[in-house]
Amino acid sequence: MSLLVVGSVALDSVKTPFGEIKEGLGGSATYFSIAAGCFTKVRLVAVVGEDFPAKHVSFLKSRGVDLRGLSRAKGKTFRWKGFYGDDMNEAKTLRTDLNVFETFRPELPPPYRDTPFVFLANIDPDLQRNVVDQIPDPYLVACDTMNYWISSKPEALRKTLSRVDILFVNEGEARQLAGGSNLLKAARRLLSMGPSTVVIKRGEYGALLFRKDSLFWAPAYPLETVKDPTGAGDSFAGGFMGYLSRRKGLTETRLRRALIYGSIMASFNVEAFSLNRLRKIKREDVERRFRAFRGLVRF
Ligand code: AMP
Q1: Which of 6, 76, 81, 101 could form a disulfide with 13 if both were Cys (CB 3.0 to 4.6 A apart)?
Q2: Residue 37, domain CATH
Q3: Atom of ligand 1 nearest to the CA of 144
Q4: For the segment 70-99, what is each residue's pLDDT rounded down to a tens digit?
Q5: What total number of domains does the chain contain?
Q6: SS3 sequence, 14-81?
Q7: Is the dihedral of CA 45, 50, 52, 54 positive or negative?
Q8: Could you tell me the residue range of the domain that residue 68 belongs to?
Q9: Residue whose CB lies within 8 A of the most ligand 1 atoms, among 25, 31, 56, 122, for a mutation test
Q10: Which residue has a Cα nearest atom 13 of ligand 1?
Q11: 92: which strand partners?
Q12: Which ligand 1 atom is the nearest neighbour of the CA of 78?
């Protein structure tokens, strides 16, 4: 079933202890679409500038991403510059040039308005809600956010949370949003804000899935090569939502599997800069890693 993502399409400049890339393809909606595209048809809503390279558009098309919602505005594409020190779990932002993203008002092409599965990547919570308003009857709405919105627009974010089914946050954001250090208590508080499922990402330490009456934890897939964690959160959400959106039904088993597929897509993503690893991944590679993952945690 179709899956819609609204978020950023960017040119990222990233430095890690293992190398660097200048103005590579990035953005939350990009990582999400490529990861989710291994499972389902993705409809993308984003904006780029006049300088956005045609080769990136061709690549997204070649992976089957529906680009009817990608608009090209006058001006430059959104750019993000960051680096990772020895702690690869935390990005340090050096520069954010919003450019055409500053005046971005997502408008869904009419054929997108019946999309059952929706992912609101990390953008202004007022815009996230505006997207939900344009879809009369979504089956499942999920969202991501970041520290910037938690501190600058807490009220708007609360309103958005009351409209979503699944919230994806990392550990630090969960504590900040819930106001407290214990992760289990934080998750419970986040559940009381609206979502029926809260996913807390813990980088190389795995991810937790919280629901009212259940808790599931999975480690990250162990890797010898981690080059660039940029986009890990978005490819995680892409794997999770991509798997879920293959059909309706939100059983505990399917949600747990979705968490594993999320971890797998994130694990491929961090093995290379930009989308250089993810772009080569096929469904067979995903299933092979899924089986290996199962072997690792069975006892
Ligand atoms: P993550 O999955 O959290 O590592 O997301 C990384 C992606 O988020 C990068 O490709 C950036 O282009 C994008 N990004 C960084 N800052 C922002 C922002 N303020 N708004 C939207 N996207 C952003």
Answers
A1: 81
A2: 3.40.1190.20
A3: 3
A4: 999 999 999 999 999 988 888 999 999 999
A5: 1
A6: EEECCEEEEEEEECHHHHHHHHHCCCCCEEEEEEECCCCCHHHHHHHHHCCCEEEEEEECCCCCCEEE
A7: positive
A8: 2-297
A9: 122
A10: 27
A11: 83
A12: 12
Q: What's the chain's length in residues?
A: 299
Q: In the chain, what percentage of residues exceed pLDDT 90?
A: 98
Residue for token digits 């946050």? 169
